[in-house]
Amino acid sequence: MVYVRYSIHMAKTIEKAIEEIAQLPEEDQEKIGRGLLSHIEKLRRLRADLQRGIDQLDAGQGAALDIETFIARMRLQYGEA
After folding, report:
1. Cα 62 to Cα 81: distance, rounded to the nearest angstrom
2. CB 81, CB 39: distance < 8 Å
3. Domain ranges in the chain?
4. Whether residue 8 has pLDDT greater than 80
5. How confident is the model at residue 11 (pLDDT cuts 50, 70, 90)?
């Protein structure tokens, strides 16, 4: 069994999820881990893109856009979450 030390600031929900995942076979743990890391990377890219957009707006570089087209494009790029 592998013991992992967690930060006291870790959300209780993720802590509980990790405890449950640790009880699964290694193959399932790996699959869940890959999925979680993929989701985290999508969130990081989304946040970076949002910050670039905010920076552009702050610099007066904003332009009108069709919000429905934008949302559809972002869902394709980042998924529904």
Report:
1. 25
2. yes
3. 12-78
4. no
5. confident
pLDDT digits over 29-45, tens only? 999 999 999 999 999 99
Handedness of CA 24, 30, 9, 47 (dihedral sign): negative
Going by C-beta distance under 8 Å and a sequence separation of 6 or more, which residues neighbour residue 42? 78, 79, 81
- Among residues 11, 13, 76, the alpha carbon closest in space to that of 46 is found at 76
81 has a pLDDT exceeding 60:
no
User: Among candidates 74, 14, 72, which has minimal Cα distance to 45?
Assistant: 74
Q: For 21-52, what is the HEC assignment?
A: HCCCCHHHHHHHHHHHHHHHHHHHHHHHHHHH
